[in-house]
Structures are given as C-alpha cells and as structure tokens.
Design brief:
Structural class: alpha/beta
Shape: globular
Oligomer: single chain
Number of strands: 7
Strand content: 25-35%
Strand order of the largest sheet: 3-2-1-4-5-7-6
CATH topology: Rossmann fold
Helix content: 25-40%
CATH superfamily: Vaccinia Virus protein VP39
Number of helices: 5
CATH class: Alpha Beta
Number of domains: 1
CATH architecture: 3-Layer(aba) Sandwich
Largest sheet: 7 strands, mixed
Distance between the termini: 29 Å
Length: 184
C-alpha cells in the first residue's frame, strides 16, 4: 500500500468542509438502533463521522495521517484515535460492536482492500458497514480513487447482507453504496 502524506495532509485540511451532519446522524442512529456500545471508523480522518456519538459509546478511530489524528483528538477528546492501518488493526478479535468505513476503500489498492476486509471481519463483534463509491465492475475514478463493489469482497466471509443499496442523496449527496453486514 502506498501512502502519499502530502495528499492526505491536504485532504485533512479540507476535511472540515466535508462534514455532513446527516451522514453523521445516520451512522450514530444506526449503531444505536443495533444496540452497539463500541464503534470503530477505519480511515477516520479528522473524525467528522464520529462526532455525534454520545459519550456512552466507546469511540475509536484509526488513520495513517498524523495531522488528521491531531485534529480528530482536538475535536472529539472523548474518543480514542490511533495511528494505524486497515491491514493491521490494533484490536482483539471480536472486540468492536460496529466497524465501518466511509469513502476509504475507494483510495486503496486491491490487495489492501482484501486484507482490510479480513481485518474488519476479525475485529467486529457483529456489525460491519462500508459506504463507498460503487461500480459493479470496479472502475478507476481518477488517479487516486477506484469505485468498489464491496458486496463482492464479503462473499467468502460468514456474514449476512442486511443492506446493499445506494445511500439516499438527502443523507449522502454523493450516493455511495451502503453495505451493512451482520457477522455470523
């Protein structure tokens, strides 16, 4: 997996402008409705998707970018943010109730996605969510991103597909594919 620090520092600087309160509410309400008490966002950036979680949750965020993690910790001091990779999550097996990505998988190469899916499955207690730009055949979007068919990545795992639909534009204007899985 290659990592372009300059690109991700710039992304962190612009991340606050990407804050989508409707998506943050959606993730929080979904995790709460599933009776979760711990949540992990992989590729959390500055933590914008985690900010509406109540302090009754154990809130975790993993990212490779130091600058983003500093901002996340300042904005959400009740959370636990760590530097880390999706390919080696620093959590015990079946230790997090709700594990999710939002727009991360589109930036990763195929091998990293495969390893990341395995790690998400490993650390999840029960629920896994991916919200990613979608294409059935996985096409290059630009020099940095590739659309993903996340459903196909989970076919070899013991999961039940609860949802695999495009997000409504009122919640997420870019309408990524919302894939929710229950670990069996």
């Amino acid at each position: 997996m290659s990592y372009n620090e300059e690109f991700w520092n710039k992304y962190s600087d612009e991340n606050e402008a990407r804050y989508n309160e409707e998506f943050s509410k959606f993730v929080r309400d979904l995790a709460m409705s599933l009776h979760c008490t711990s949540v992990l966002e992989i590729g959390c950036g500055t933590g914008i998707d985690l900010r509406l979680f109540p302090d009754t949750f154990q809130i975790y965020g993993i990212d490779l970018n130091d600058k983003a993690l500093r901002i996340a910790q300042e904005k959400l001091p009740i959370a636990n943010f760590e530097k880390g990779s999706i390919t080696e999550l620093p959590f015990k097996d079946s230790s997090i109730d709700f594990v999710f990505t939002h727009g991360l998988m589109n930036y990763l190469d195929d091998e990293t996605v495969e390893k990341g899916v395995a790690e998400m499955f490993r650390v999840s207690t029960k629920w896994i969510m991916n919200c990613e730009k979608y294409d059935e055949t996985e096409k290059q979007i630009d020099s940095n991103q590739k659309s993903r068919n996340m459903q196909s990545k989970w076919l070899d795992y013991k999961v039940k597909f609860v949802s695999n639909v495009d997000m409504h534009e009122d919640i997420e204007p870019n309408k990524p594919r919302f894939t929710l899985l229950k670990k069996l």
